[in-house]
Amino acid sequence: MKIKSLQKVVLPVCLSICIAGSAMAADANSSDDEWHFTLSPFFLWGMNIDGTSQIGPVTAPLDITFTDDVLENLAAVFTVHFEAQKRDWTLFAEYQYVNLDPSIETPSVASAEIDFKNQLGELGVAYRVATLGINDIQLLGGARYTRQDLKVNLNPGPVPVDVTETWWDGFVGLRIFTHISDNWTFIGRGDIGAGGSDFVWNLIGMFDYQFKDWGSVFFGYKWMDYDYDNGSGLDRYAYDALQQGPLAGLSFHW
Fold this sequence. Notes:
Elements: H1 7-27, E1 36-45, E2 48-55, E3 58-64, H2 66-73, E4 74-86, E5 89-100, E6 103-104, E7 111-132, E8 135-155, E9 161-179, E10 184-195, E11 199-212, E12 215-230, E13 237-253
Antiparallel strand pairs: 1-4, 1-13, 2-3, 2-13, 4-5, 5-7, 6-7, 7-8, 8-9, 9-10, 10-11, 11-12, 12-13
């Protein structure tokens, strides 16, 4: 059985986990229970891309570095992250939009202009399973939606190649909060998934500094690796790339 066939199983299971987690959190009715919310609307991921994307017979190299290429070729970027926490349960959601317009030299043609749009939506639930000293450990699971719009214009060459691809992946993983001091916290997250993708893994390490009860700043590094392949012949679309880079942002708490 192909890994992609897990989509019909993994996604419903992960969504069921999210619904069950929300229901269990709502059932907790002790007098000191409160919901705590975090919103990170100012969130930048300086994405480097190293890999390839294939549209039918055309393979487009995606070798883009943040400092040399992304800042020059970045058309738009937007990321927002939200969490709602009550006792041991946390519900989280994230949306990211990136648009890159690089122009690169290739061995076979004079140049290739690429319009690459990547959208990612994530919904999940985490549960604190243990507290070891200054460390809180959570199990997490959820579903991730990816949409990619890729247009390749070869100069000289035939008419532009244009494709839009969407897919869902389920994921499971761990998250750890190391409370270094009253203000400083290290946050680490790792998860793996499959479904529409053959395989995808995600790894984050960052520090959060809370300067007020209502606000904190964070910085760190994120890796996300996709192995996606769908269709065949002229209808084939494949994306095999590592997205990585520094991240930083501002969070509001209430």
